[in-house]
Design goal:
This protein is α/β, with parallel strands linked by helices and 338 residues long. Helix 3 links the parallel strand 2 and strand 3. The longest helix has 20 residues. About 1% of the residues have low confidence.
């Protein structure tokens, strides 16, 4: 969901307004043409278009979208430093009921943006401290969704004899997605989450990451995970048209409003590999997934990801409504017919 008004840090106007009207139109149409899930990111400031640009609140947007759609799953991002776990568990259970059950999931993410935390009066913690907090946060949310009378006392949170009713309709709990490339992140996700989502990379690199996470997961004796990747998609009938569009979206200007925010993200995360200015132009390393080209080329790449163990593609495109229609026509519909 383009809650920031787009995905391109170096293109000022992508014809994707960060408004309820555009978001509602985009979401209802995506459900009609075959998409299954939408990730709703959570940042109170706009890290794509610059701090002064508008961005939508994730949780109120998710609740509203539940009421106007029927099938889509909403993977709503949540950052433990910004949400009391008991209150978020209550809020999420209520939204699950609005959607009829099975359509709400969580994307638990680390808070990397120091400026945002300070502007909103939230304590900013170092990387490993954030994951220690997240471990407590997840334990509380999981237990509150499953039973009443739960108490907890840890370093970061204390609750006593909690009652949360109604419980989520989704049982045993809504799906919990998370991503991260540090050792602390991967171990926590393998032990406590249901799904692992990754930045964009080629299928062979993704296959190695999935194998690693499966090994970690097996050590805890837990069932298999869902594996998702981010990808930026461009579908065109000719390669020349694809290259022209790639040049347009990667014409990086370091003076763009989002560049300072991007540098803070790099400083606040622990990545497995270096990123380039081309990565900067499209968020979540989306171009590295190679989901651009002719329809057949993209279909082949999707097949390679499926063979690597990927269950979920989290796609970005721009302008999203128009490109989403193109993807549905040339990719989703042929796959459903095959």
């Amino acid at each position: 969901m383009p809650v920031f008004g787009g995905w391109l840090r170096n293109v000022d106007d992508e014809n994707m307004q960060a408004t309820w009207e555009y978001t509602k139109r985009l979401t209802c149409r995506s459900e009609q043409i075959g998409f299954d899930l939408s990730l709703i990111a959570e940042l109170n400031l706009n890290d794509i278009k610059g701090e002064a640009a508008p961005s939508l609140d994730a949780w109120s947007t998710a609740a509203a979208l539940m009421a106007v759609t029927h099938r889509l799953e909403y993977m709503v991002a949540v950052r433990p430093t910004f949400h009391n776990p008991a209150l978020l568990a209550k809020q999420a259970a209520n939204i699950d009921h609005i959607g009829g059950g099975g359509r709400l999931s969580l994307n638990v993410v680390s808070s990397w943006w120091k400026d945002e935390a300070e502007k909103y009066g939230v304590q900013f913690e170092q990387h490993d401290d954030r994951y220690a907090r997240t471990a407590e946060w997840l334990e509380i949310v999981d237990n509150l969704w499953k039973r009443d009378g739960f108490s907890f006392e840890g370093k970061y949170y204390r609750i006593r004899n909690n009652v949360l009713q109604p419980k989520p309709l989704t049982q045993p709990r809504p799906t919990i997605y998370a991503g991260g490339e540090s050792e602390a992140a991967k171990n926590l996700i393998a032990k406590t989450c249901d799904a692992y989502v990754m930045h964009g990379d080629p299928p062979e690199r993704i296959a190695a990451k999935i194998a690693d996470m499966r090994t970690r997961r097996e050590k805890f004796g837990l069932p298999p995970m869902i594996f998702g990747i981010a990808g930026y998609t461009i579908i065109r009938s000719r390669e020349q048209e694809v290259q022209k569009e790639l040049e347009r979206i990667t014409n990086v200007k370091q003076s763009a409003a989002g560049y300072h925010n991007y540098q803070q993200w790099l400083a606040g995360t622990q990545l497995e590999q270096q990123v380039s200015l081309e990565d900067y132009s499209v968020s979540n390393r989306g171009l590295r997934s190679g989901l651009y080209g002719t329809p057949q080329k993209v279909l082949d790449q999707i097949g390679a990801f499926e063979a690597a163990g990927v269950n979920l593609l989290l796609l970005q495109c721009s302008p999203q409504l128009e490109e989403m229609e193109r993807f549905a026509e040339h990719i989703i519909q042929p796959m459903k017919r095959s």
